[in-house]
């Protein structure tokens, strides 16, 4: 039996099944939905897609091979995930994160905290080109500071995600910032300059909203609580700027474009080394007393890398604030990523996603509707394939010819791929980016998505620009001096 193209109904059924099952998962299991129920939903939706594939003539062996290939594409992210878990654990033990929390409590005002968090993460992410590294370092500390100030973890996570993706989006060091123009056929720095028109106004609006929320929140700085947390930090850790050296080393390595996996893992190992040198009192309390000291320290560091760091301060809420990490803490996220990538690879292989795009192009008559359709396709690809890179590559390949046919410059497509793909990925709980942010920040995307203002505003502003004809550039002859703005 020969393979045949799916109908629109074929393409819609797995998506509808997935949405229904994920909605039921959230309804039945609430905050625990990402710890097994969502994975089962993805498996069930994959089974439905497989049945449709078999109906259309695809052999099981072909679809199984696609699943394995899809999962293999996520292995680089999995290595980073595991390394980040180890890093959080050793940076707790080394005093790096507690030091960041301590100084954050002394410096940051509750009224300005959300806006300052967003701006700080934006600066760091732009410097190193990585939203993931920013969230795992500065973001973890800011969540801790928010807990100390009695501020909302959901709004704080939204500010962290907004800033991290703003900086990542505009950094020439970012993988997605390089990938989008490569797919669209645009120059990297032309792409970045063209993104400024939608990105900067979106970020300014996000900062304004975070400032308004901060000044209107019914939160008074609890000085007793801040003093209590500060005292606990000083009693249990050696707080000094020396403890921040692992953070600076990691940032320098990221700026020097050392690959993410070795950068993060070296940062984790350096955190363990720093604990030995500068947290001797803490280590003496935590190591087993009935074995030689050197062996006890080795065992403690080993345990921290795989199981994370925990401490008993006498206060349960502070224990939660100062504990976490370890590679094992990321295993549920790895499970979610594998499940999502399996589903995405299956629907891609049997042509369901391409069927959606073909149907969408039929209605995309104007430039505004074409760009809107591209953004929608990027978002749907993020939902279905659960991978940020796929949300750039697949729509980019599918729409590139149509943009050229309509005389639109490649930077229009490359900017739209980022506005619709890069930006929306952390808003989806089972997407690799959403799952990662959940694991690191311990806040569900379902909670922080409403406050990730930059990620929400940017695609909407891009659609407004498209329909108003603002900074939509036309292809021009070689002898033309500058591109013209397209009419909608």
Keywords:
488 residues; mainly alpha; 24 helices; 74% helix; globular; disordered C terminus
Word description of this protein:
By secondary structure, this protein is mainly alpha-helical. The protein has one domain (73-328, 351-427, 445-488). The protein has helices at residues 8-29, 37-55, 60-73, 75-93, 96-107, 113-128, 131-149, 153-170, 175-184, 188-216, 223-236, 245-255, 260-278, 280-286, 293-307, 316-321, 331-349, 352-363, 367-385, 388-405, 410-422, 432-441, 445-448, 453-468. The protein is globular, with a radius of gyration of 24 Å. The chain starts with 7 loop residues before the first helix and ends in a 20-residue tail after the last helix. Mean pLDDT is 87; it is low at 478-488.
Layout of helices and strands, plus pairs?
Blueprint: H1 8-29, H2 37-55, H3 60-73, H4 75-93, H5 96-107, H6 113-128, H7 131-149, H8 153-170, H9 175-184, H10 188-216, H11 223-236, H12 245-255, H13 260-278, H14 280-286, H15 293-307, H16 316-321, H17 331-349, H18 352-363, H19 367-385, H20 388-405, H21 410-422, H22 432-441, H23 445-448, H24 453-468
Helix pairs in contact: 1-2, 1-18, 2-17, 3-17, 4-13, 4-15, 5-7, 5-11, 6-7, 6-8, 6-10, 7-8, 7-22, 8-10, 9-20, 9-21, 10-21, 10-24, 12-13, 13-15, 17-22, 18-19, 19-20, 19-21, 19-24, 20-21
Question: How do you describe this structure in short?
Answer:
The chain contains 24 helices and no strands. The protein has 488 residues and is mainly α.
Assign a percent range to the helix content.
Answer: over 70%
How many helices?
Answer: 24
Tell me the count of domains: 1
Which structural class do you get from the secondary structure elements? mainly alpha
| Distance between the ends | 46 Å
Portion in beta strands: under 5%
Identify low-pLDDT runs. 478-488
Mean pLDDT: 87
Using the alpha-carbon principal axes, give the shape: globular
The succession of helices and strands, N to C, reads HHHHHHHHHHHHHHHHHHHHHHHH
Largest sheet: none
Number of strands: 0
Radius of gyration: 24 Å
